[in-house]
């Protein structure tokens, strides 16, 4: 069902410093910050030859990333994202197997403007999983 790894998302307390670290220290191609008000985050994309890193920073007081950073003040891996060919078919299969889809279970457009769903970390070995339609 899952395809390639789309990205690893890392919550960071200082977006500018994190972007500079990836750009300068690691020599990566790094995007400008992109506010995502619907998701309560500002993102920076780090382009890799085979995938992406998504740096996440809170946007607004109700940002889900703010709560994550409150628990992990230095930041850390927030979620991993896999591509799927058909997000509805993937959702239905997972739900039929007893896996929990977060939110109302309906795909929302994510930071890449493609339909996404999040799966409960307790169902995936402590890892928050995002599925993105390829």
Please mark out the parts with pLDDT under 50 across 5 or more consecutive residues, or reply none: none
Largest sheet: 9 strands, mixed
Helix content, binned percent: 10-25%
Beta strand %? 35-45%
Note the gap between the termini: 12 Å
Element-level helix/strand string: EHEEEEHEHEEE
Corresponding CATH superfamily: 2,3-Dihydroxybiphenyl 1,2-Dioxygenase, domain 1
Q: What Rg is obtained from the alpha carbons, in whole angstroms?
A: 15 Å
Cα shape: globular
Which class of secondary structure composition applies to the elements?
alpha+beta
Description:
With about 130 residues, this protein is an alpha+beta fold. It has a single domain, classed as 2,3-Dihydroxybiphenyl 1,2-Dioxygenase, domain 1, CATH 3.10.180. About 20% of the residues lie in helices and about 35% in strands. It is built from three helices and nine strands, in the order βαββββαβαβββ. It has helices at about 15-25, 65-70, 85-95, and strands at about 1-10, 30, 35, 40-45, 50-60, 75-85, 110, 115-120, 130-134. Strands 1, 2, 3, 4, 5, 6, 7, 8 and 9 form a nine-stranded mixed beta sheet that branches. A hairpin with a 5-residue loop joins β7 (about 110) and β8 (about 115-120). The termini are close together. The relative contact order is 0.21. The mean pLDDT is about 95.
């Amino acid at each position: 069902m899952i395809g390639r790894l789309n990205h690893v998302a890392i919550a960071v307390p200082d977006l500018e410093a994190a972007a500079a670290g990836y750009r300068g220290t690691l020599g990566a191609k790094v995007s400008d910050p992109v506010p995502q008000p619907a998701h309560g985050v500002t993102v920076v994309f780090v382009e890799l030859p085979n995938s992406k890193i998504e740096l996440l920073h809170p946007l607004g007081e109700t940002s889900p990333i703010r709560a994550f950073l409150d628990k992990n003040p230095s930041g850390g891996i927030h979620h991993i994202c896999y591509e799927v060919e058909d997000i509805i078919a993937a959702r239905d299969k997972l739900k039929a197997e007893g896996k929990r889809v977060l939110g109302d279970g309906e795909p929302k457009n994510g930071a890449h403007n493609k339909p996404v769903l999040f799966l409960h970390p307790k169902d995936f070995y402590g890892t928050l999983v995002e599925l993105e339609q390829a």
